[in-house]
Design a protein that fits this description.
transmembrane helix, membrane, single chain, mainly alpha, Cation:proton antiporter, Helix Hairpins
Length: about 110
């Protein structure tokens, strides 16, 4: 399990560093998505450590079973949806910017608009 957590942490770190280092806007959007996916995966891995049962009522199930709290699950689903919508908005903004510019390199865009 420690290797899984380490690989997820490396994924988040690589996404963060690539967002800073990369100069192309499309690559920045992709690396931000990689970082977001890593964060969601980290929350999922942390949630599996507790060993709680999914909160689905089953006939004949013992009432003393420790059920997982469904609120964090809803928060993670909301984070996934919000991340997808933000990524879509960034891609639309990059498409509109690409209409006016022959390149999506941030240094050239900064020179033109600043």
């Amino acid at each position: 399990m420690i290797y899984l957590e380490a690989s997820i942490f490396i994924t988040i770190l690589v996404g963060f560093l690539a967002t800073i280092i990369k100069k192309n806007l499309l690559m920045k959007i992709v690396t931000m998505d990689v970082m977001s996916t890593g964060v969601v995966a980290l929350f999922v891995v942390i949630a599996t450590h507790s060993g709680l049962v999914t909160p689905i009522l089953r006939p004949g199930a013992a009432p003393a079973i420790a059920y997982a709290d469904p609120v964090p699950q809803g928060v993670i689903l909301t984070a996934i949806v919000i991340g997808l919508s933000i990524q879509t908005l960034m891609l639309v903004a990059a498409m509109k910017l690409a209409r006016d510019n022959p390149t999506l390199e941030t240094s050239e865009i900064d020179q033109k608009y600043l």
